Amino acid sequence: MSIDNALINGVMKVYQSKGVGKFFSINFLDEQDGEFVFGVSFPADCLNPQGNVQGGMITSMLDDCTALCVLFSTKGKKFPNTTDFHTTFHRPLSHESVTIKSSILKIGKNIVSVEGKIFNGKNMLVASCLHTGFLFDTQGMKK
Q1: CATH 3.40.640.10, applies to 5-137
Q2: Which of 27, 25, 36, 26 shows the shortest CA–CA distance to 3?
């Protein structure tokens, strides 16, 4: 897939300016063969009492990165409205910068299935997800 830097920069600017995108620190790093890579830093407010990143925050971050993957893959024309989301946790995540990789498994006319994986600073798998969503047009979305 040929990457459209202007689209990605524009989407990331809007995403990072409000809502969850403002709370989380997600930066687009790379795309290769349909796999999108994001650099992520969790705020300290995401930690559980043990000092690790709370699982719901990990799931939320995976949700956003897999949705961004769909938006980028459809050249900004489609976005998933989640119908199903499964997260599997493989190990705890300490408060550190991480990498998220996401790629579309299957995209149809109305439904998309996306895989997401989050890796810690040692490149060890922390959590993985399967995100299924109903595709809707981005035309008319409020910015």
Answers
A1: no
A2: 36
Residue ranges covered by each domain of the chain: 5-137
Contact 133, 73 (CB under 8 A): no
Distances (CA, A) of 79 to 6, 11, 55, 96: 18, 12, 24, 29
| Span 62-113, pLDDT tens digits | 999 999 999 999 999 999 999 999 999 999 999 999 999 999 999 999 999 9
- Separate counts of helices (H) and strands (E) for the chain: 3, 6
Q: Which of 100, 127, 102 is nearest to 112 (CA)?
A: 102
